[in-house]
Amino acid sequence: MIRPASAVLATINEPDAVASLAPEEMTEFEGLIRRQLELIGEDPDREGLAKTPNRVAKALSWLTRGYELDPRAVIGDAVFEEDTENMVMVRDIELYSMCEHHMLPFFGRAHIAYIPNGKIVGLSKLPRVVEVFARRLQVQERLTEQIADAVQDVLDPRGVGVVIEAVHLCMMMRGVEKQSSKTITSSLRGVFRDDARTRSEFLRLAHHRSEGF
Ligand SMILES: [Zn+2]
After folding, report:
1. Are the C-beta atoms of residues 167 and 108 closer than 8 Å to each other?
2. Which has the closest alpha carbon to 59: 90, 26, 108, 22?
3. What SS3 class is residue 187?
4. pLDDT tens, position by position, 102-156
5. Tens-place pLDDT, residues 16-68
6. Where in the chain is the domain with CATH 1.10.286.10?
7. pTM
8. What is the Å distance from ligand 1's center to 182 Cα?
9. 152 given a catalytic annotation
10. Which of 26, 55, 134, 205 would bridge 97 by S-S if both were Cys, CB 3.0 to 4.6 A apart?
11. Which one is the CATH code of 76-207: 3.30.420.40, 3.30.565.10, 3.30.310.50, 3.30.1130.10?
12. Which of 154, 160, 159 is nearest to 77 (CA)?
């Protein structure tokens, strides 16, 4: 398929854009998906599947585009001097990732909080930090740690707390088929780990059910 020049120039935010695959890599990728279809007993030449290898290759590239992203670059210059010692929290950040064991999606919400030590970050940047690490093959535990590490690294705050609650399709669709179990992970740094009051305030806010939004 020949893609128009405008599509080639599409940003990586567009679902159709391929992050960094060279044309020969794309061809190889499509060949592998085609073979995969054969191995599960499908006929890759039937009409409905004709463009599937191309679509899957593009989708997988997009869903794993976090490998090309760097948290410092994503935050950019959105770090500001600010004299506040109160907790800053962004709740309910939507999150979509893929488990590295089955390459099946897991998804849910992340809650991130920190206590500044002279620097704050533009609030819209925290969801972007989540994207950097969620758009890779992951385990939820490491994802949680990496987000906390990145906030710690860029802001050097007095403490960081990250909670992720997610459901895993590999648990829901196969094997144990636990349809409604949710996995909750947390990572606490600095005063969130060492100070019981800060920790309990954060965990109370993180687990509080939002109403009206
Ligand atoms: Zn899995």
Report:
1. yes
2. 26
3. strand
4. 999 999 999 999 999 999 999 999 999 999 999 999 999 999 999 999 999 999 9
5. 455 578 999 999 999 999 999 999 999 999 999 999 999 999 999 999 999 99
6. 5-63
7. 0.87
8. 13
9. no
10. 134
11. 3.30.1130.10
12. 154
